[in-house]
Structure formats: structure tokens, C-alpha cells
Amino acid sequence: MSNRSRADGDHRSTPPNIDVMHSLKVDNLTYRTRVEDLRRYFEKYGSIGDIYIPRDQFSRSSRGYAFIRYFKKRDAEEALDRMDGADVDGREIRVQFARYGRASTSESRDKGRRRRYSPVRRCCFQYFHREYKKLIYGLSRWFAAFT
Fold first, then answer.
1. Torsion, CA 26, CA 28, CA 29, CA 35, rounded to 10
2. What gap in Å lies between CA 21 and CA 52, rounded to an integer?
3. Helix ranges restricted to H, the chain
């Protein structure tokens, strides 16, 4: 199950029929902008299928952009024309058609696990770790002498 914020309260991983929807990317949002706020601004231009605000993996705060999917291309084009440069929560937002599809959940999970350090970086880490352990050991012996 995904933790996506959906306007209708549904927390499925993807909305129905996403292949036939037209996605807009909205940039320069405040961190307090909610799905309901975006729906209020953008539903004037047509039927919205999905609104997704990506969140930071650890802090769960907004990343400052969102994706809005429309069922009809002409509705998405009208929203782009009317809302690009509009003021939302005190900021001038930028709206454009999203260039790429959403990454699958398995791809995004694997990306974090595949992190490998170069031999030089690994060597430096081991060196500093070893030196840190020596420092802690020396300090503990020094403190033990006074107790």
C-alpha cells in the first residue's frame, strides 16, 4: 500500500486508467499546499482524475511540486494556459506537461538499495572509523585513570 495523498481519501498505489490521463507538473508550491487546495484551483478547467504531491521519504514534508492528471487533454491544456504563472498560496507557480511517467515502486525501492561506494570512499570510511575507535578507546582509558 502506498502513502499517497489522494483527494478522495483512497490510498491505492495508482488511479484507474492512468494510461488515458494527461499529466501536468506543478512547480514552486509551498510546503503547506494540500491536495484539496490544488483541487480547488484546478478543477475549474475540467474533470481531475488524480492529484499527487510527492513527499520526502523521511520527513514526510512536501517536496514543493505536484502532479495533476486530467481525463481530457483539452482540459489539461486549458489548465496549463490559465494556471502557469498564477499565484497559489503566495507563490507564482509554474505548470507544464509532465515529461515522463511515474517510476514503478520496485524501481524506486531498488534505487536506494543499490548504492555502492567506490573503493577509495570505502577505504576512507574504514580509515576514519578505525581512527575514531582509537580515539574513543584512548579517551575511555584517560577517564578511567581519574575515577
1. 10
2. 13
3. 35-42, 73-83, 105-113, 119-145
